[in-house]
Amino acid sequence: DDKDCDDLFLFGTRETFSFKRYSLEQTHIIHFYWIDSNEELDIKENGLQVFYLPDGVIGSVLDVWDTIHMFTGPKTFQDGIQFMQDHMGVIYKNRTVPNFIPDESEILDGDYIAMFGMGSSYDGFGLSSAIAWGTGGMTSHAALCLRIGGVLHVVESCGFGIIKTPYVQWMKTTSQNNTVLLSVLRLREDLQKKFNTTAAANYFATVEGLPYGNENFIYGWLDTVSGNIPPPASWQDLPVVLALGAHLLPNVTDLFFGAGLNQRLQKNNNNNPTPYTIDEIFALCDKINKTVNEIMTWPELDSYVYTNPKGPRMVCSVFVMRMYKEAGIFSGFPDFETTEFTPKDSYQVSIFSNTWQRPSGCHADAQQGTCQVTGPYWLELPSFNAILPYARMNEKCACMPPDYTRTPKNC
Fold first, then answer.
1. Which residue from 22, 66, 299, 339 has the highest number of Cβ atoms inside 10 Å of its Cβ?
2. What 3-state DSSP class applies to 336?
3. pLDDT one-digit tens code per residue, 265-274
């Protein structure tokens, strides 16, 4: 027998967790102490969650180390390429044509910037690949071109919050080390004519300086209980992840999970002004006979107002779609929540042109309808510009690897 062989398990409920390592094949007894009434109810209703870590103690530590390296290590670029190939089947095609910056005269207000960050200068491959793996999209960031006070800017929601940067400065900074795949997209001609620059600039002024949408980062992505979390993760992980987070990283857990859950539960509990803790959220879920997984799939509403500071929260793609909405291009379309749009959703919606007069530096090998500006590989956007807007768009979409097909139709 292999003396180094062992099995590592995580046993957990929504209130407690325990790692157990077993090296011998025999019957093992696990004792849990100080189980309160809430935890007893959880076990009776949902059972004890058991997670097997197949790589054992040492292997699991190395897995965590490899994951951290995707975000900060010296092999971030190579590791990211391998991750996209192994987990999403993405094979990047080399792009050897020169990078360029379109002249300001070739850029219109409302032009969409689609990006995938492969280096530490913007997003980083770790975050970019995590967004792609979760949503099935080929971009990790979206931004918008807009003239404010007669000056062309790139406006965006990013790690620095909702900001504007002069166009040329932004382009030079973003593309300086050639690790960003960046393409410009153009609105369809009829919608371009509807784009109200003044209205867009006025709305931007009301949200400039607000934080990035950490509070609802996951909620535009999680539409179904079991159809949005790709393996090896699973929907069963969520309650235990919340329990772990509440104990080990309470502030982070409240930011990424608690704030959004509070929006949903307060709205359905007479708008209780005091935020619920994670433990209180579990108790309230029991009271209304819902699981926390079900609550998380309730649509994120554009009307939600978060605190500290007070205002909406928007991730990059939501911000772009909200700017389009405020600029009037969706007038006449069925109503939907822009906060339900991931980066993938925002380039798949059918509002763009496939036949626009692209800037002179664009290469013919770029995907139809796109003008790739920078990057060592071609940025390909599956189902680009393919889905007509419809009421309550993207609220109930399952989307899983390997093909990440949206189901059902008009979900």
1. 339
2. coil
3. 885 555 556 7
